[in-house]
Write a structure and sequence with these properties.
It is built from five helices and no strands. The protein folds into two domains: about 1-45, no CATH class; about 45-84. With about 80 residues, the chain is mainly α.
Length: about 80
């Protein structure tokens, strides 16, 4: 989605969208961070020896991700983004 949204964008357009520092460091590469720009870290990943507990945690994470995707779709009217 990031590549679709920035495809063909000029450096000036990226700067106007608040992506100037990201472009300066990473160009258009994906960088795992949350919506506030906080970098991803493995420090909070849980691991258990219980496969049932692992499955429940994985299912909860999938539901949280689904909610984020649905919210992102609500924030756009671009049909190309909604179809992918």
């Amino acid at each position: 989605m990031n590549y679709q949204l920035t495809e063909g964008a000029s450096v000036e357009e990226l700067e106007a969208a608040g992506l100037g520092s990201n472009y300066a460091i990473r160009e258009r590469a994906l960088f795992p961070a949350d919506a506030n720009g906080v970098p991803w870290t493995a420090a909070y990943i849980q691991a258990h020896a219980d496969p049932v507990a692992e499955l429940h945690e994985d299912m909860a994470a999938e539901q949280k991700a689904r909610t984020v995707y649905e919210n992102l779709l609500d924030l756009t009217d671009d049909l190309g983004m909604k179809m992918h």
